[in-house]
Amino acid sequence: MSPREKLRKMESRVYAVGNILVLSLFLVAALVTKAGAEEKGDPEQWMREAETALVRVENYRAIFHKQERVEGRLMEEETVLLKFKRPFKVYMKWIKRPYKGPELLYVEGWNDNRMMVRDSGIMGIMTVNINPKGSLAMKGNRHPVTDSGLDHLVKLLGNDMRRGVKEKELKFKEVGEKILYGRRTRRVEVFSPRDKAKDY
User: Fold this and answer.
1) Which segments of the chain are extended strands (E)?
2) How confident is the model at residue 116 (pLDDT cuts 50, 70, 90)?
3) Please, which residues have CB within 8 angstroms of residue 149's CB and are 6 or more apart in sequence?
4) Residue of 158, 157, 130 whose CA lies nearest to 144
5) Mind listing the pLDDT tens digit for each residue in 7-45?
6) Where are the domains of the chain?
């Protein structure tokens, strides 16, 4: 495999931020803030609490677990350390095999608004600058790195959740509490219509 092909392969996996990641982030943001709330499930209350708590957050670190189905094939799970700081600085590092090593840095308004990317292995000796919305970065992705962070995700999920509840198309099921990375969280399953035209 040529260095260019290897770089393209690395970039396609480095920027994969899918629905599972988005849902995981929503649950961590909304449900961790839910610790003292009443037992009855209320999606609108969860969203208000998440939005209120988020206003006070200047920076955070999170670990994401993501697994996507690409062309009918279930890919291996990715584990990503993410650091975010306002106004808009994002750092990501893939921390577990088989994707361990790649790093990404994006700072709005810096480096001509391009991402700096470093792969693991032999390609790790070089850093490349890539347009975050370009075809190379977007290959296999629905959202660019510029959509990263809790602000964007809570807004996106809040809009979808409110629309789905209003249309009576979403169902929520609380499945109990779980300790994740030392924090008590409430787990919720969200069921949406299978109709892709609904675009949840």
Assistant:
1) 59-66, 69-70, 73-74, 78-85, 89-94, 103-107, 115-118, 127-130, 171-180, 183-191
2) very high
3) 84, 88, 90
4) 130
5) 344 433 333 333 333 344 444 444 444 444 444 567 888
6) 3-198
